[in-house]
UniProtKB/TrEMBL annotation:
Protein name: Protein BUD31 homolog
Main location: nucleus
Keywords (A to Z) from UniProt: Nucleus
BP term (GO), one: mRNA splicing, via spliceosome
Amino acid sequence: MPKIRRTKKRPPEGWELIEPTLDELDKKMQDAEMDPHEGKRKCESLWPILKVHHQKSRYLYDLYFRRRAISRELYDYCIAQGYADANLIAKWKKPGYENLCCLKCIQARDTNFGTACICRVPKSKLEEGKIVECISCGCRGCSG
C-alpha cells in the first residue's frame, strides 16, 4: 500500500474512475503480504507480492500509454504516490521488454554467471516439456 501523504493537494481529475481498481489491488497486496509462508521456499513467499505489484503497474501503463484513458497529470500523480513502479514502466516502453515481469530478471549482477534470468530466454530456445520458473518472481517466461 502506498504511503499516505498528508497534503492539501487534491487528486487530479479522473481519479474517481481508477480509485476503485487501485483500492482492490491494494487489498490484494495486503492479502499477499499476510498470506502464510510456511512450507514455501524463501523466494516463493515473495512471488504473490511481486505479481500484484506488476498488476498495478501494468494497469496504469495500459490506461495511459495504450488506451489513453487518463491524463498525464493523473499518471504522474499515481507514480508520485507510489501506485506504480516508474522504472518498470520505463522498461516496458523499450523494444524487447514489453512483457518484462520485474526488474530483477534483467539485472545481471543478481545471477551466478552474470547473465539475465532464465525467464528471459525465449521458449523456442528451451527444451520441449521443460517448465521454467524464475527464482526471483515466479514468472514462467516473459520474453515471448
